[in-house]
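Much of the work behind modern protein science is quiet bookkeeping, done one molecule at a time. The protein below has been through that process, and both of its lines are reproduced in full.


***
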Amino acid sequence: MKIKNLNEVPPQPAPLPSRPSGSPKEAGPAPVSSSAVTLSDLSAKVAEAASALKAADGGFDAGRVAEVRQRLDEGKYTIDAGKIADAVIQQAVFSARPSLP
């Protein structure tokens, strides 16, 4: 295995050739026109739902977390598999439902 000399300076790339000067139109940036953007009904509903979720008071509950942690440590926490299965099925049905026009 050959080790390269780290003090050696690598060769520099050759400079790019300069562009021929064209008319002033070609040299400047393209003109910008203003445009209006209209959101679809669906995107407006999604934005509304996102705002509602942010405003909802269903956030982190430190007291509930401490309670569950204590029950786990004591071995008293039980998991209702039927409740979890029902929620998974409900979510799958809700996700597969086609959107209304």
